[in-house]
Design brief:
Keywords: Hydrolase, Signal
Strand order of the largest sheet: 2-1-10-5-8
Protein name: Rhamnogalacturonan acetylesterase
InterPro entries: Galactose-bd-like_sf, RhgT-like, SGNH_hydro, SGNH_hydro_sf
Largest sheet: 5 strands, mixed
Number of helices: 9
CATH superfamily of the largest domain: SGNH hydrolase
Family: Belongs to the 'GDSL' lipolytic enzyme family.
Signal peptide: 1-19
Shape: globular
C-alpha cells in the first residue's frame, strides 16, 4: 500500500489532470475507484485524519491549486456542514441538506510549502521562506491539503481532489489579512474564499507582524513572485506595522519610503502579467465619543495617492471598517474583535467576515474583471449596516489559542 501511494504521488506531475483525481469515501459504501477512509484512520500513506481529530482530514498534495468536490448528506439525518481548508480558510458555510438527500459542492484550495527554487551559484537569495516559529506547524506551509469538517451535524460522505489550472488571487499583508490559525482570532483574508465561485484560487501569503520591508527580507515576496503567472491578481494591504517608527529595521514613512515600496511592488507584478490591487488597512478601534479616530490616516492617503498615480484600483477597507465600527457603536463594536474585545486591532470571526464581505463589495464596486469570479448569490451589502453580531453564526474551528497575534 505504501509503494502504491508513493508511486501515485510521484506520477502526479506527469499524468493528465483527469487521471490525477483522487477520490475518498468517508461514510457508506466506497464508490468505484475511491479509497474508503474510516473515521479512526490516522494520517498515513498520504491520507487520513490528523492525530487526535476526526474533523481534520488531510491528503498529501504537491504545491498548486486543487478543485475539491465534497458530497454532503446522510440517509437518516439532516446535516449542516461547514468546511475550512488549510489554516481555517472558509470554503463552505453552513450548507444544509435534508435527511435522505445528498448534494455536491466544489471549491478551490491553494497548497504551498516554504521551498524556493535555489538561486544560481553565487547569486543572492535563499532556498526557503524564513518562517516564524508558529508557522512551522501550520497547515498553510506543509505538503498536504487539509480540510476541517465542522458543524453540529456535518455530513461529508465523499471527497475528491484534482489539480486544476485557474487564476489565483495572492493576498499579501499583515495580521489583519493572514490565516489566523486558531480561535478566537480571525482575519478577513481567510474568510474571502467563501465569497468566490469555484473557478479561482485564493492564496493567502499574509502573515502577522509583517511590513513591506520584512515581506521582502523574509523571502515571502520572492515566494509570491515565483508562484504567480500571467492573469493572476495581487491584493496588497500593509500599514499597521510599517508605521511603527519604533521598529527601525522595517519602518517606512508614509510620505516617502512606504510609497516607494508600493510602486516597486506594483512594477514587479505588472512585469509578470499580474494585476495589482491596493487595499487600505482596516483601522483600530480607537474612539473619540461615538466616532473612530483613525490611526492610519497618513497610510490610507499614501495608498490612495499611489493608486491614482499608478492607475491601480484601490479598495478602501479603512473607510468600510470605520463605517462598520461606528454602526455598532462603542458598546457593541468589541463584539467584532479578538480576545473578547480586549484586542482593538485584530478581529474575531464576525469582524473578519464583515471585512471580507466589504472587500468583495469593493471588488464589485471598482468594476474589476475579478468581480466576474464572485459568487453569484451574494446579497447587497453595506458595512454601515452590518449583520447583527447577536445573530451571526460560524462554526468554530478546533484549535484555540489566546496568544495575541503579532503586530498591533
Amino acid at each position: 500500500m505504501r509503494l502504491i501511494a508513493g508511486l501515485a504521488l510521484s506520477l502526479a506531475v506527469a499524468l493528465p489532470a483527469h487521471a490525477q483525481t483522487r477520490s475518498f469515501t468517508l461514510a457508506g459504501k466506497a464508490a468505484p475507484g475511491a479509497t474508503s477512509v474510516a473515521p479512526d484512520h490516522a494520517h498515513a500513506d498520504g491520507v487520513g485524519y490528523e492525530p487526535g481529530s476526526t474533523r481534520l482530514f488531510s491528503v498529501a498534495a504537491a504545491p498548486g491549486n486543487y478543485r475539491v468536490t465534497v458530497t454532503l448528506g446522510l440517509p437518516k439525518q439532516a446535516t449542516e456542514t461547514t468546511i475550512k481548508a488549510e489554516s481555517r480558510r472558509l470554503m463552505l458555510d453552513a450548507v444544509r441538506v435534508p435527511a435522505g438527500h445528498s448534494i455536491t459542492r466544489s471549491f478551490i484550495v491553494d497548497v504551498r510549502n516554504a521551498a524556493l527554487l535555489p538561486p544560481p551559484l553565487n547569486a543572492p537569495g535563499g532556498s526557503a521562506v524564513l518562517l516564524k516559529p508558529r508557522e512551522r506547524s501550520s497547515f498553510s506551509w506543509d505538503d498536504k491539503l487539509t480540510l476541517e469538517i465542522l458543524g453540529d451535524h456535518p455530513g461529508v460522505t465523499a471527497i475528491s481532489i484534482a489539480p486544476v489550472q485557474v487564476p489565483t488571487v495572492f493576498l499579501l499583508g499583515d495580521s489583519t489579512v493572514t490565516d489566523q490559525g486558531a480561535e478566537p482570532a480571525a482575519s478577513w483574508g481567510q474568510m474571502l474564499p467563501a465569497f468566490f465561485k469555484p473557478d479561482i484560487a485564493i492564496a493567502n501569503h499574509a502573515e502577522s507582524g509583517e511590513t513591506l520591508k520584512s515581506f521582502i527580507a523574509e523571502l515571502r515576496f520572492a515566494k509570491v513572485l515565483e508562484s504567480v503567472k500571467p492573469g493572476d491578481w495581487a491584493v496588497i494591504q500593509f500599514g499597521h506595522n510599517d508605521q511603527k517608527a519604533n521598529w527601525p529595521q522595517t519602518y517606512a514613512a508614509a510620505e516617502t519610503t512606504y510609497r516607494a515600496y508600493l510602486r516597486t511592488w506594483i512594477a514587479e507584478f505588472r512585469r509578470r502579467g499580474v494585476t495589482p490591487v491596493l487595499v487600505t488597512s482596516p483601522d483600530r478601534r480607537m474612539w473619540n465619543g461615538t466616532k473612530i479616530t483613525s490611526t492610519l490616516a497618513d497610510y490610507v492617503a499614501a495608498v490612495k495617492a499611489v493608486g491614482a498615480e499608478q492607475q491601480v484600483a484601490v479598495i478602501d477597507l479603512n473607510a468600510a471598517s470605520i463605517a462598520f465600527y461606528e454602526a455598532l457603536g462603542p458598546q457593541r463594536a468589541p463584539l467584532a474583535f479578538n480576545d473578547g474585545g480586549k484586542d482593538a486591532t485584530h478581529h474575531d470571526n464576525y469582524g473578519a467576515w464583515v471585512l471580507a464581505r466589504s472587500v468583495a463589495k469593493g471588488i464589485a464596486d471598482a468594476g474589476l474583471p475579478l468581480a466576474a469570479h464572485l459568487a453569484p448569490d451574494l446579497r447587497a451589502f453595506d458595512p454601515a449596516r452590518p449583520p447583527d453580531p447577536a445573530t451571526f453564526r460560524l462554526a468554530p474551528s478546533i484549535a484555540h489559542d489566546t496568544t495575541r497575534p503579532d503586530g498591533s
